[in-house]
């Protein structure tokens, strides 16, 4: 089992910045991907950014160039630096950890942290 905890959400004006962090506990042996997703009211949960254990990064639509994902000093911590925030970035942001072994797939989620961008 892996437990994830997010930090850093809050209220910010349009154009401002926030930094989200996600820490983990438990066994990360089979976890090879960590990422951030977001879900606005009435919408599906979408990828914001992800990073693999080897450092490959991908971004969702509309955030590249404004958001930057990075890993911590050890695998299991990820940060999301969000600059140039827009009202449409308002959502609950979730940390995700995923992986697999020869028999199982693993998919863990944090509780989420609210990000609200005022216009």
Radius of gyration: 14 Å
How much is the average pLDDT? 96
Poorly predicted tracts of residues? none
Number of strands: 11
Strand content: over 45%
Structural class: mainly beta
Explain how this protein is built.
A hairpin with a 6-residue loop joins β7 (67-71) and β8. The strands form 2 sheets. Strands 2, 4, 5, 6, 9, 10 and 11 form a 7-stranded mixed sheet that branches. A 4-stranded antiparallel sheet has the order 1-3-8-7, with no helix packed on it. With 119 residues, it is mostly beta strands. It has strands at 2-7, 10-13, 18-26, 31-39, 46-52, 57-59, 67-71, 78-82, 91-100, 105-109, 113-118. It contains no helices and 11 strands. 0% of the residues lie in helices and 58% in strands. The model has no long low-confidence stretch (mean pLDDT 96).
